[in-house]
User: Fold this.
Amino acid sequence: MRYHVAGQSHRGAVRESNQDVVGWRISHSGDHALLVVADGMGGHQGGEVASRIAVDAVMESLGPEIAEASPYISDKAIRDNLDRAFELANERIVSRRANDPRLEKMGTTLVVAWVSGNQAHIAHIGDSRCYSLSGNQALCLTRDDTVVQNMLEDGSITAADVPNVPFRNVLTRAVGAAEQADPSYRCETLEEGGVLLLCSDGLTDSVPESRWLEILKESDGMERTVQALIDAGLANEAGDNVSVVLLKLEY
Amino acid sequence: MASLSQLVDNVVVNTFELGQPETRIGRRPDNDIQIDEISVSGQHALIEAVPNAYLEGTVDYYITDSNSTNGTFVNELRVGGRQRLNSNDMVRIGWNEFRFIDEEEQALEKTAYILD
Assistant:
């Protein structure tokens, strides 16, 4: 079994700064992988700081765990580790906010996947997403923490309304915005040849999911696939930062 | 508060405040907004003002056609179910044109907790 991982973050076609941060790591033994995407908010400076703190906290907290993890680590241990990483990211952002009035409104989305064998453990807060891509299907594994998502689910609005709703970018939860981080969690089995995709909303807003699957088929290797996804976003004048991390499982 | 401005040849001829939880529009005199014009049904459409359950201090406005004969349109698309209105939407009741304005919504875009 082997993981092929690649990722990239681009400031997009319009924005002057990049408030997205991505990260990934594969264990020495090759049977664990860690993927991270964060999309910061709270003004020009705050957004960049929050997403950077979050990804650093995750890599610092989980990097050594991943590097040394036994192939027999329990699902519960993985989940506890993910919770701790979110807690650390949250604490650091909260305390940095408290000490610097310019960063008062900062926070970040955070989506983390710990892949162990063929199991993907996904923890998440905000509207950066994790997808499972296989064959002709792009399955979203995370539920956006947004006002819009709540309104879609209760039937107040339809998908066609989303681009016009003025608060379409308002999150109901963010890392650094509450006393405690309480990430959503799920575990998903990856098939052979299956691909896990983590992204910021810059990708979902600029490139339709159906196109991702075509790009995946057309491109050779993970690096080129990531590049092609970013290029597709830029070709569609991506108004936001575009970030992607991909993992492919091969036997 | 939001309002509905009636337009004739792109000129505002009348503005109705949408201050109540429900505003009924139609030809009959018992409507909150009465439009005495042949293309308008007795009871034509309903606009509801509903506090947003997920975003404190925000009110959403929804329009529903009340089985009118000539239809209710938002930006020239016929309203099927219950549809949320956005500021500056053009609302047509039969042949009568209105612009929906929500000042609060315009303010929200600047102040809310928004990802950027």
Remarks:
- Chain A touches chain B at residues 19, 39, 41, 43, 47, 105, 109, 127, 147, 150-151, 154, 156-157, 161, 164-167, 169-172, 174, 177, 201 (CB under 8 Å).
